[in-house]
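Bench notes, afternoon.
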Amino acid sequence: MYFVKKNGDIVSQRKKHAILFMIVFMTSYYSWIWIFIDQPWMRAFGSAIFPIIGATISIYWLSRPYSILPPVHRRFILMVNTGLVLFLISNGIWLFFLLTNIFLDFPQTAWIFWVLADVLFLAALIYKLRLLYKSNSMGPFLFNIIIFMIAATTFSIHFLINPIVDISKQYQSSLFLNTLYPILDLAIAFVIINIYYMTRHKKERLTYQFLTLGFFVQIITDTVYAVLLINDKYTYGSVIDPLWILAILFIGYSGLYVEEEEEEKFWIFRSKLVTSVDNGLIFNASVIILTALVLESNNWEWDSLTFGLVISIIFIVIRQIIIIKQNRSLLEELWHSAYHDKLTGLTNRTSFLRDIKDLIKFSKQKKKKFAIFLFDFDRFKNINDTLGHNVGNQVLRECAVQLKKSISEVDRVYRLGGDEFTIILQDKSKESCKRVAESILNHFANPLLFNQYHISIKPSIGISIFPDNGETIEKLMKNADISMYLAKSRGGNQYTFYNSELNNMVERKMMMEHDLERAIQKGQFILHYQPKINLQTRKIVGVEALVRWKHPLLGTVPPTEFIAIAEETGQIVAIGNWVLHTACNQIKKWKQMGYDHLHMAINVSARQFEDKNFISDVKEIIDKTGVHPSDIELEITESVVKNIADSSRILKELDLMGIRASLDDFGTGYSSLSVLKDLLIDAIKIDRSFIQEHTDADIAMMKSIMNIGFNFNLEVIVEGIEHEQQVEALLAISNRTIFGQGYLFSKPASAEEIEKLF
């Protein structure tokens, strides 16, 4: 069942009115008995009419939550209500017999319906117990329940069933009914105790407290009735009769705690383990009562054997109480460890899978939506690698704090493992999801301070929505993961909603990842070349080698798409070596054809440049191809200069080999005057963004950058030249030799096409 209030004030008022009704009703019933104390027929009439009224009210109370519960719980309500209807019919039959003056006693037909009502109650409770056994463990309580049932059964057989059998022998037709209801009471007691102790959630327990109370009032009343019957002291309209109605009213009253669930608070009561507060005293008390029963059967005669038995039982009870306390504490610790992440204190993957399973089922029934945010933190691995895992753990703990600040109290953050987290937002629109995602990004906008470190950490967030993007855990997580990957591939520090087009992108990426490793062996890579021009003389002085991938199914894949994948998978080193080897062979061929003035520029990725075998690979390729080192120029990106010491060492080794080096995309990254001073660079390539619009500001910036290069005696190459006006603007800046590349002169083309330009 679902046990969260829809409107606190209305529900509270309804419960108060119900309690007031029960007080007035029970007072009226006892007043009736007192007023007609000397009129047996009127007392019997009251004992028939009051139960009919009480059962009707109880049926109404218990029927109210029927429409808001899922089918699996409706069956339980239906069976209990059917039992109440049978109770009502039983008293209706008796009322008919009274009004028709047939006889005063409770008729056997009514008895049959009375017992059938208990049968329906037992069936309903067994059905509920079966549902609970699927999700909970009875281990912590089973031992205590067995103790109680042994004591209760012994007490019932000794004081009730055997005497009832004795007095019913003369009425064989009623023997079965008279002995059946105490047995049914025992079964109901056993099942209701199981249900109560297997109910883990606080709100659900409130419902079962009144349900349990109702059934135990009935059992106690049945027991007192049996004792009075055995001793021939029971009369219709007795003071115990209203207690049966009180039991029925308690059963119906429990339905008032079953209210329509407020969806965004669905799981709030799954977050804590509910344990019993009685410490098993009720069960151990039953053992003491059983001991007293043994003594009573022995006429309270004490001897060494009896005394030893009592002392032993006392110590067993004390020991059992201690064990229960210890086990409960251990159970709570184990439960917390099973469902929470030790590092951050957040709920973990196990808890996530449990909650999401329930939420999917609930959302299907209520036709509601919810969103999954899946994200990890960009370049978190670098923190562990450079600052150590201790700092990394501190960062994760702080990330958990920031994430909890970004969401409402009714939503929940989970740590799935590593730096991967997820958030579930209930009943949120796309706009509200955007607000939450932006709130998360804002919480990570500023660097986090750890000891002396200012660490900037940014999340990439993928969002999938139920049921639009999937109706299963697997589908929702897959689509959220696809969205997160896209957010990462776009630079990170952003969020992306899933849409069906992302599937094609991911399938394309997966195909490229799979095929990239064998692309070299299959000869799928080719080199195109773009000429480098002396802007003053308009002569070709060199070419830049640019790799292309001719995929058999995808066609020509641009390097902007597959280079990033090659970086991620580590294939970039093999691809880079293939490019270097092929380009060296090509420039040697052109030299042999008489183009002595050419040199070959070859791009080197950051990962290839930082590879431990980079220098040895370059030497091996130079030796194999027989190319002159001075004909080669390696272009590195500004990202490699973050580690000045290693970059400086590698560039010095290249310089000793006679290989030129240039800094690509200058002005857009990490470079500074000190970098140019410390690194052995022969040329700078100014990024195309500085020449695209060639406004006055652009020209001024270009002039400053070019002057920096000239002042360091570096060759200056301008990329992205597409119009003659750009060339004129560059030549107007300086009379020094300037080199350029761009579509104005030639697009990247095959070696054969470039040779025509020579």
